Amino acid sequence: MDSFCEQILAFCQQATGAVGRQLLTDFGQAQADEKADGSLVTTSDRWADQTLRERILKEFPDHGVLSEEVEHIFPDTEWCWIIDPIDGTTNFTRGIPLWGISLGLLYRGTPVFGYVAIPPARQTFHGFLPGDSGLDWSEGAFCNGQPMHTSQAVPGKNQLFSLCARSTAVLAEPFPCKIRMLGVATYNLLTVAAGPSLGAVEATPKIWDIAAVWAIAQAAGASWIALDDQPPFPLTVGRDYGHQPYPTLVSAQADWVETFRPLVQRVVP
C-alpha cells in the first residue's frame, strides 16, 4: 500500500476510534436542538466536529476541511476532508444503536478515499477510489479490514432495498424487493456496498452524507446514480455546499439501475 494511503487509513482509524469512544458515553443521553433545515444537532455533534477538524489540521496542515457543523465553503486546496461527525443524530439521541462517523478525502474536488465508523456496531468501512485522478493507488473497499463487494443477486422478495425517511413515496407502487429504513444515510448506502442490499435511495443527502460513501460504494462495485442528472463531483472552490441536496440511487449492479430508477425517480426535490 502507498505510504500516504497507509497514513490516511491509520489516521482515520485512530481519530474515529477516539471520537467514537467518547460518543458512546454520550449515546442516548445528549439533548438535541433543531437546526434551520429541520435536522437535529447536539453538543456531541459539535464536539466531534471540532475534534476531528483539529486532528486533521494537526496531521495534514496543508489540507482543507469542510464539515457539517462549521465550514460549508469548499476551500482552494488540492486535498480536502469532508466530515460528518455524527450521521444519524436522531438515532444517537433516541438510543438507537445505529449511527456513524464519516470522513471523506477529496483530491482536486473528487473523493478518492472514504472511511465510515459505526461505533455501536463495531464496524468500519473504507475504500480507495483513485479513478482518473492520476493517483497511483489500488482500488478496493473493505469492512473491518476485509475486502467487500456488492451482491450478485437478482431483485426479488427476499432481497433488500433501503429507503431514507424522505423517500417513502416510492411505496405507492409495488416494489421488487423488501424495504428497509435505517435512519443513517451513510449506512443506508453502505448496505449496498457491503452486500446486504441490492439498492438504496437517499432523497436529500448533503455533501457530508455522500462524500465518503461515494468512494467506498463504487470501489466495492456499486453503480452511483445522481437522480437529478447532476454529477456531485468535482466540487467548486468557493461554493457554499451547506444547502445543496444530492438525490442518489446506489445499485449493487449496473444491470439493475433501470429496474430501480423509474421506481425511485419521484424522490427528486
Describe the protein in words.
With 269 residues, the chain is an alpha+beta fold. The protein has two domains: 145 residues, Fructose-1,6-Bisphosphatase, Chain A, domain 1, CATH 3.30.540; 108 residues, D-Maltodextrin-Binding Protein, domain 2 (3-Layer(aba) Sandwich). 29% of the residues lie in helices and 26% in strands. The strands form three sheets. It has a seven-stranded mixed β-sheet, sandwiched between helices. α1 packs antiparallel against α2 and α4 packs parallel to α5. 45% of the residues are buried. The mean pLDDT is 94.
Give the tags:
29% helix; 2 domains; Fructose-1,6-Bisphosphatase, Chain A, domain 1; 5-stranded mixed β-sheet; alpha+beta; D-Maltodextrin-Binding Protein, domain 2; 269 residues
Helix proportion range: 25-40%
Strand order of the largest sheet: 3-4-5-6-7-8-9
* Number of E-type strands: 14
* CATH homology group of the largest domain: Fructose-1,6-Bisphosphatase, subunit A, domain 1
The CATH topology name of the largest domain reads Fructose-1,6-Bisphosphatase, Chain A, domain 1
- Supply Rg: 17 Å
**Overall tally of structural domains:** 2
Low-pLDDT sequence parts: none
Mind telling me which CATH architecture of the largest domain this is?
2-Layer Sandwich
Largest sheet: 7 strands, mixed
Round the mean pLDDT to the nearest integer and report it: 94
**Global geometry:** globular
- Counted by DSSP, the helix tally is 6
Could you tell me how far the N terminus lies from the C terminus, measured between alpha carbons in angstroms? 41 Å
Q: Strand percentage, roughly?
A: 25-35%
The computed structural class is alpha+beta
What is the CATH domain class of the largest domain?
Answer: Alpha Beta
